[in-house]
Amino acid sequence: MGDRFLHNLDWLILLPVLLLIGFGLLTLYSIGHVPDDLGRTFQSGESSFFHRQVIWFLIGIGVLIFATIVPFRYYESLAVLLYLAGVGLLIVVLVLEPSQKASRWIVLGGFRFQPSEFMKVAVIFLLARVLAEKRNDPNKLRVLALSFLIVTIPFLLVVKQPDLGTSLVFPALLFTILYWRGLNENILVLFITPLISAFLTIYSERTLGRGTYPYPLLIFLLVILILAYRRRRDIVQGVLLVGLNLGVMLIVPNLWNRLQLYQQKRILAFLRPESDILGTGWQVYQSKVAIGSGGFIGKGYLHGTQKLLAFLPEKHSDFIYSVLSEELGYIGAVVVLLLFAVMIVRGLYLAINVKNRFASIAAVGVCAYFAFHVIVNIGMTIGLAPVTGLPLPFLSHGGSSMVISCFMAGTLLNFSARFYEY
Amino acid sequence: MAAIDQRDRVVLGARLNKVLIVLLSIFVILGIRLFYLQVIRNDYYSKLALSNRIQRERVLAPRGIIRDREGSKLVVNVPVYQISVLPGKVQGREGRLQLACEWLQIDEEKLRHNLSEWQKRYPDGREMTAVGTANKRQISILMENRDLFPFFKLEMKPRRQYPEGSLAAHVLGYVGEVTDDDLKWAQNLQPGDIIGRTGVEYRYEGFLKGQEGIRVVEISAEGIRIGEIENILDARDGAEFISSQPPIPGNDVYLTIDLRLQRAVERIFDWERGSVVMIDPRNGEIIAAISRPTYDPNIFLVGVSEQQWSKLNSDPAKPLFNRTVQATYPPGSIFKLITAYAGLREDVIRRGQHLVPCLGAYKFGNRYFGCWKPEGHGTLSLYGAIVESCDVYFYQVGEMLTADQFAAAGRLFGFGRVTGIDLPGEVVGNCPDHAYFDRRFGKRKWTKGHLLNYSIGQGELLATPMQLCFMAAIFANGGTMVRPHVVLKIVDTDGKVVYRPGGMSVAIQGIDRRELPIIKSAMEGVVSGESGTGRAAALADFRIAGKTGTAQNPHGEDHALFVAYAPVDAPEVVLTIVMENAGHGGAMAAPLAREILAEYFSTVAGLEGGYQYGVLDVDRVAGPNR
Known about the structure:
The complex is a heterodimer of chains A (422) and B (626).
Chain A: H1 3-8, H2 11-31, H3 48-69, H4 73-95, E1 106-108, E2 111-113, H5 115-132, H6 141-160, H7 164-167, H8 169-180, H9 185-210, H10 215-230, H11 235-258, H12 261-271, H13 280-294, H14 320-353, H15 357-381, H16 399-417
Helix pairs in contact in A: 2-3, 2-14, 2-16, 3-16, 4-5, 4-6, 5-6, 5-8, 5-15, 5-16, 6-8, 8-15, 9-10, 9-11, 10-11, 13-14, 14-15, 15-16
Chain B: H1 6-40, H2 42-50, E1 54-59, E2 66-67, E3 73-85, H3 94-104, H4 108-121, E4 128-131, H5 136-144, E5 152-161, H6 169-172, E6 175-177, H7 180-185, E7 194-196, H8 199-203, H9 205-209, E8 213-219, E9 225-228, H10 239-242, E10 252-255, H11 259-268, E11 274-279, E12 286-292, H12 306-314, H13 323-326, H14 336-345, E13 361-364, E14 367-370, H15 382-388, H16 391-400, H17 403-412, H18 434-441, H19 448-455, H20 465-477, E15 480-482, E16 487-491, E17 497-499, E18 505-507, H21 516-528, E19 545-551, E20 559-566, E21 573-579, H22 585-602, H23 618-622
Parallel strand pairs in B: 2-10
Antiparallel strand pairs in B: 1-8, 2-3, 3-4, 3-5, 6-7, 8-9, 10-16, 11-12, 11-21, 13-14, 15-18, 16-17, 19-20, 20-21
Helix pairs in contact in B: 11-22, 14-16, 14-17, 15-21, 16-19
């Protein structure tokens, strides 16, 4: 601890984090604020979100400092314990009386806490610990199976809640970390392409119903054939790749037709929000109106209008980026995007600069966590990604997300300050 | 722990580059999309934002109409204006609320109380109904002063009405607002929606409901509707969301019920508790069905108060209970038809066989089982035993049968299983077999004595009036089973038939049709014979077959039962009457059957000239043009 520690600390990670939290607080304050000229017609908004978030901010900073200072070898040695605790909490959540529609929270003395957020950290640490050992090459079946097991348990528990959006974080973390640890690209392709096939097949279901061709699916089929052609030297892999994907494309419609109508609707609403105009599709539409009407320089801080109307739901949590983009315009929206990009890119460079293998893998995991949340959340507000309920790190209102995001950022800072440690 | 060495770092560097390319290209796509929305399409979205006083409203589809078989309306929709309060808009306008209540003559204190209760229950600010049916004065005041009272919303809603009141109430069922429980499992329901609760309203909900539409309306900043909008601007990628969609009305349901006959039966059946079922044995159509006591389904629409509901619900006479399918009774002597069939089928008796004469009681072991006629019937054949309903004769048949033989015959005729009628809540009754008696009384703890009771339809045996009708229809058809049903067809708004019941008539496997004629001729004797127990049901010009029943009831007076079908040579109507605590079936139920059948032949059978006793000849009735 001392000058050297502060010198090594990556300020290009810390600074974006602080700025992003600042943006979040400003936007939350704005949501509770009604412009003077409209004060007659609108009641004052929900300022309580801002006040609560200030408290979370203070706690978050404390967590960030803590996560930075604790020597990171403790994370490695505690990984198994953290993981077991996380799984335990997820089970407790499922067993306890559901607090709302879905059982996601544990209530502790007035604070609600989402174990699934905690679980993301635990999974990253445990995967990093297992894969940090040199003999654990992810191309070995044993290691691959173990990694999948580590991720599948929390994945299924979260799906059961049910929280499909959050559960998808786990496979995203797994594949990124495995790739980083040296998983053969060919194997990775074998895992990921069937998922895309399934997604596109369901996505095309309605197009087929209308009698037109499902172009995205056909294009993807072409991509697969090209990939297979490039693997022509290894005939087994090529056949496996084409077979798996064609199999998925043929089986999925069959399974699909067996689902109840409401189940189909729920999945379609998830994949294509516009198919559910009364529900999530309307949210996306309103979000696009808010963002689009912001223009290049925005309507000015505190001068957004869409936030006042009841049309933009979840504007303080999942759709906070819509409010921000309306008031601060394209400039503000891109600045936020860039801040995230800087932070994540610095984190990735950190991953090859640290000398410790655990730190390297964990850093990549943390970056994958941030990237996935940012892309899915912002993609959702501009109609490019499904409506999942994933928060925007540092900006969205909510304690669990703030604390965990700060903790993750703290670990990155931690690795950067101790990059030389073996 | 091994450190990352130089060789690793080279590999990782290559991987880092690929990860960076993927990551940054996604970020660039996000940036481009933002640029498209915020810079290129800014004008378009700005206009939308300005006019983002545009809201979608659900337009409820009118519920389908329920008609009788000729098309007369039994359930309709009437439009009413409803005043709702928007809780979020009341704050800060207490003075106005007071004024509004004064003008609209609403009890302000009560409204405030209800509203605060409502907000505690639903903190999400959903609207509460303040006035279920607004009168003309209230409507015009509210329409003129929309700006003054933004917290009140005036809405036209279709409301269910039952123009015939309590007529066929148990068949029609009633509707009600969805509860929170319904909302949990139903995807497309919203608070305030109306759904069927019982009867046809419940069972055919999917056909009756229709599909709601969407209306796009412009609202002022105060949340007041300004008007409807067909389409916004040249909305290209918004058009999909914001064009109006008209609702698709529910389908009309035609019942098999004949309104004229139903009215007549409701009038003729003047007993306090009981039921009447009439079905067409050729196809299972239920042409009239009543259950008493009854209720007026209209009360559920005005919004049943807690008091009214608990009164209806806790009434010991159970008016909400559909006795035709939900109440079970011992069938009494009606079951002798089955005992007779079982006896013939199992060869324990022969057609003309006379058994030990009836002297008013039958000694079994050291117990005496009495006949209903204390002075005795003397010596009888099977025919006479059915006609005079002699208990002693059937005790002897029962003694020769086993419990499983009883159960098998009973099941064949529909006892102990549902008839499959398209009304909710049907119960199965009970048709006990050997295993049942073992369970009920313990192994070897029961004797032949139970079977003696079984043979005359008393004891553990239980059946619904619908099951009795079902059974009588099998006799009428000579071994063919028809599934009773109340829906004739369902027709959409274009007049296209979207549903028609099918496969309603099935020949029963395993029934011995040779044994039926003797029983059927005895059934005719029950009504036409000199000493027939059902002779009070006889009509001069029609050959009617029937069977009386008197169900012992430990809680009071016996229940009077009667089943009948007519005309005997080509049956077209089967009738079941149950009168709770009325006494003997022959004395109480049979005379009603006579009146109802007379009504049937003069109205439904299409004899417009009207039926006069003794004037019509049978031939004119034999081929009805219904």
